[in-house]
Amino acid sequence: MDTSFIKGIIPPIVTPIRSDEKIDEEALRRLVDFVIDGGSSGILAFGSNGEFYMIEEDEMERGLSIIVDQASARVPVYMGVGAIRTSKCIRIAQMGVRCGAKSISILQPMFIKPTEDELKTHIRSIAASVPDTPVLLYNNPGRCGYAMSQALVEELAHSIPNLVGMKDSSGDLTQTMEFIRRNADVNFKVFCGKDTLIYSGLGVGAVGAVCSTANYVPKLVCSIYDKFMTGDVKGALEAQLILNPIRLMNDFSSFPVATKDCANLIGMEVGIPFLPNKPSPAKQQENLRQALLVGGFIS
Questions:
Q1: Integer angstrom CA distances of residue 47 from 51, 88, 139, 283
Q2: pLDDT tens-digit map of 209-255
């Protein structure tokens, strides 16, 4: 199974919507071009920043088809699978593959907090439903209320043929390192899931990062990866330190509102979040604008 494409900076692309909360095709196509032109190595459709939990399956399929069509094989498209019910996850995974996604990413179920045995069955069932497609795990304890353990990931990585990697959004660099170390013998590929830790993640063996900030400052984010991979470690660190205050300012908005706010501030016109989320209040909008201004991304 070819996994050579699993690397680099992958933006979890936001889902532009119109006032009726339907996907804005023109804006989505424009955003796909923007992140690819900015140097991104792939696109994650319907990740957390894509507000997957707000979107019905038919509209999700329409959105993915637009993304795949606009990407036009310039970069691989990854499909986020984040529902609670296993059968729904299987439908979404199979739909993703049918529409042209090269890989799927499985988020652990939120709200129900399954046992490890239940979680193993969930992941095995989804992976088995797309046996010829590379599968990634998505460890996001902050949003789901619990983490995927080292032991669980190690067992699954060594027993599911098409489970080839993961995104770790724990923010714990030791955790990320252990996911890499314990599964290095099966060429398990680990993405860093924290924009502030791209440089650090690459330093401990991550193959890249899935970064929300690549929706609006892709050239900066991709420069961290590109500089690091060409040996310009100093330049990579400098770029990381420019990015960090921009990303940290996002934390003062409700999740994932600030990603759309910042994309709008740089002129991408991606619309507002799905209700009940709303754009950040005026004071926070100004804080985000100032962070982008100081970084030199708007005038």
A1: 7, 16, 12, 27
A2: 999 999 999 999 999 999 999 999 999 999 999 999 999 999 999 99
Q: Of 191, 195, 130, nearest to 163 (Cα)?
A: 130
DSSP 8-state code for residue 177: H
Tokens 């990320």 -> residue: 176
Contact 30, 246 (CB under 8 A): no
Residues classed as catalytic:
138, 167
Cite the beta strand spans of 140-182 per DSSP E.
Answer: 163-168
Closest CA to 16 of 260, 215, 258: 260
Domains within the chain, CATH numbers bracketed? 8-230 (3.20.20.70)
CA neighbor of 269 nearest in space, from 39, 30, 101: 30
**Residue 44 to residues 65, 70, 203, 238, 280: CA-CA distances in angstroms?**
13, 14, 23, 26, 24
Burial status of residue 246 (CB atoms within 10 A of its CB: 0-12, 13-18, 19 or more): buried
Does the model's pTM come out above 0.90? yes
The answer to whether the CB of 196 falls within 8 A of the CB of 248 is yes
Closest CA to 240 of 194, 191, 289, 196: 196
pLDDT single digits (tens) 13-29: 999 999 999 999 999 99
